[in-house]
Amino acid sequence: MQVRVRLVSLLREAVGSRELEVELEDGATLGDLLKVLYGKFPKLREVIESLGKRGLDVLFMVNGSTATPDKRLREGDVITILPPASGGA
């Protein structure tokens, strides 16, 4: 099955693209997708792990809804990976 991955901000910079098409086995989970992405883009893993060590969570969304690594993916799903928001007034 094929899914689309959208990356935002510094995550986009780590991969060098705003959007990716990724081929996965049927029945794959969000966690499986992350393993594939980490294998292809080690810098992405470094950035996400670095944020986690600083207590900043990356948000994973599937078709606009927040998702956890055990979320089963389906053909055509759109996964958005968002770094923590920053800034302020």
Structural notes for this entry:
- By secondary structure, this protein is of the alpha+beta class.
- The chain has one domain (2-82): Ubiquitin-like (UB roll) (Roll), CATH 3.10.20.
- The chain has three helices and five strands.
- It has a five-stranded mixed beta sheet with strand order 2-1-5-3-4.
- Helix 2 (30-40) crosses helix 3.
- The N and C termini lie far apart (43 Å).
CATH topology (fold) name: Ubiquitin-like (UB roll)
H/E order of the elements? EHEHHEEE
Average pLDDT number = 92
Given the structure, what is the number of helices?
3
Segments where pLDDT lies below 50 for 5+ residues? none
Based on Cα principal axes, name the global outline.
Answer: globular
The helix content, as a percent range, equals 25-40%
Question: What is the CATH superfamily classification?
Answer: Beta-grasp domain
Any idea how many domains? 1
End-to-end C-alpha gap:
43 Å
User: DSSP strand (E) fraction?
Assistant: 15-25%
Going by CATH, the architecture would be Roll
Q: Quickly give the structural class.
A: alpha+beta
Largest sheet: 5 strands, mixed
- Spatial strand order of the main sheet: 2-1-5-3-4
Number of strands: 5
In short:
33% of the residues lie in helices and 25% in strands. The protein has 89 residues and is α+β, with helices and mostly antiparallel strands. Strands 2-1-5-3-4 form a five-stranded mixed β-sheet.
